[in-house]
Amino acid sequence: MATYTLPELPYDYSALAPVISPEIIELHHDKHHAAYVKGANDTLEQLAEARDKEQWGGINGLQKNLAFHLSGHILHSIYWHNMSGDGGGEPDAKDGVGELADAIAESFGSYAGFKAQLTKAAATTQGSGWGVLAYEPVTGRLIVEQVYDHQGNIGQGSVPILVFDAWEHAFYLQYKNQKVDFIEAMWQVVNWQDVAQRFASAKQRANTLLLAP
Ligand code: MN
Description:
The protein is mainly α. The chain has seven helices and three strands. It has two domains: 22-81, Helix Hairpins, CATH 1.10.287; 93-211, 3-Layer(bab) Sandwich (minor pseudopilin epsh fold). A hairpin with a 4-residue loop joins strand 1 (129-136) and strand 2.
């Protein structure tokens, strides 16, 4: 079976400056994200060993570690592509992201309402977490989720399409304790083309989530 691998960044360490410093991007990708990749692979090995030996004393910790590291790997993999040095602004039909813009307006009432909710959700995380825009396949609406750590407080089946890392490692070297300033600055680097592609892909996959046969 395949194992998890650290993806290459789609840009230089300096591509998102001044919103995010090169030092943060390098540490965040090369050290923090890499640790989640290693953690997910190590946990799979430990689970295989538990099965081989039929030793289940550590099962609760291993299942938590798998959820934590795998979710950390997935969210960071999305995060890098959600950002661009040429990003920012509002999603607009003239940029080919009209379906996403319409879905945001329908799901949240307005772009301003959506932006305020995601900003608040990310900036008020208690401890470590994320603010996430997700596609919810049962109703086909977009929702905001305030994720605890990497894996808590989400709706099963929802698909993250825009993620704001609100862990201190994402901003502290540059923004110190001003988490809200970091989250507000994040809007300057949102890559709406990437978010729109993820939205289209999530909609296509939605019919695989059957609540009833
Ligand atoms: Mn992070």
